[in-house]
Amino acid sequence: MTIAANAVIARRMEYLETETFENLLALRADEVEQLLRQLLDGRLREGEVDRPRRLIEAMRHGALNGGKRLRPFLLVETAEMFEHGGRAALRSAAALECVHCYSLIHDDLPAMDNDDMRRGQPTVHRAFDEASAILAGDSLLTYAFDIIADAETELPATTRLELVLKLARAAGLGGMAGGQALDLEAERVFPDEGGIIKLQAMKTGALIRYACEAGAIIGHAGPADIERLGAFGSAIGLAFQLADDLLDLTATPESVGKATGKDAEAGKATLARLHGEEWVRSQLKGLVGQAEELLEPYGERAAILRHAARFVAARNR
C-alpha cells in the first residue's frame, strides 16, 4: 500500500473517531445539495434554448428537499476508498441523485403510489400539478446522463461512457423502472419470496448497486473489485428495502416525513408482510454480516462503507 493510501486511511479513521457517521453522511449530502443547486439553476447550457421557469422550479422542488443522499454518499465514498474522489465523483453522484429523485416524483403520482407528502413537504404533483411532476421527473432523468457525459465531469470518455451505460441499465426496464412495474403487478397477484426479492433488487437495489460499482469504476478498480463492490451494493440494497418495509410497519408518519402503513393497505408484496417483523430483523443482521465480509479485502480503507451498511440496516427514518 502506498504512503498516500495510508494517509487517506488515517484521515478517514480520524474523522470517524472525532465525528459520527451521521455527520459525515450529512456533510456529503450538503455537498451534493450545493452542486444540484448549481446544476438546477436558470443558466442556459450549450445547446439549450430555454429553461422554463415552472419546470425548473418543479425539478428543484423534487430534488432540493433534503434527504440522506445515501446513493451519492456510497458512490463518493467507494471512489474515495480507491483514492479517486473529488469533483468527478461528486458530479457522478449528483447525476445518480437526479435519477433517484425522478423516481420519487413519479412514484408519488396518483397513477402510482398516490402520496401527498415526501420528506415532510408536499409531493411535486401536489405543490405544482401532475403534468409538471411528470415533466420534472422526465427532465431529471435525462439531465443525469447530460451531467455524466459532459466534459466537466473530468473522466476519460470511455469511463463516462461506461458510467452512462451502467446507469441506463440500472434505471431502466431491467432495473428500477422494471422493478416498479413488477411492484404494481404484485398488487394484483401476490408473488412468492423469490418474486419479491427480484422486484426489490430491481426497484430499490439496482441504483444502490450502481452507486458502489460506479465509485469503483471512477476509482479505476479492476473487474473483480467492481463485481465485489456491486455485490456489497446488492446486499445493502436489500437491507435498505427491508428496513424501509419495517418502517412502514412500525414508524409514524411524523418520524419518516411520509405516510406509513400504505404497503399493507394497498396489499403490496413485501418480505415483512410475508414473514413478519422478527424475521426481517434477523435478515438485516445477516445482510450486514454479508456486506462486511465482502469488504474484508480492503481492510481499514472500507471503514466508512462498513458504517454505511450498519446505518442502512438500523435506520429509523
TrEMBL record:
SUPFAM superfamilies found in the cross-reference section: Terpenoid synthases
Family the UniProt entry places it in: Belongs to the FPP/GGPP synthase family.
EC number(s) reported in the record: 2.5.1.10
Alphabetical list of InterPro entries matching this protein: Isoprenoid_synthase_dom_sf (IPR008949), Polyprenyl_synt (IPR000092), Polyprenyl_synt_CS (IPR033749), Prenyl_diphosphate_synthase (IPR053378)
Cofactor: Mg(2+)
Protein transport in keyword set: no
Identification of the protein by name: Farnesyl diphosphate synthase
GO molecular function term, any single one: (2E,6E)-farnesyl diphosphate synthase activity
Pfam family of the protein (one): polyprenyl_synt
PANTHER family, A to Z: FARNESYL DIPHOSPHATE SYNTHASE
Keyword Magnesium tagged: yes
Keywords (A to Z) from UniProt: Isoprene biosynthesis, Magnesium, Metal-binding, Transferase
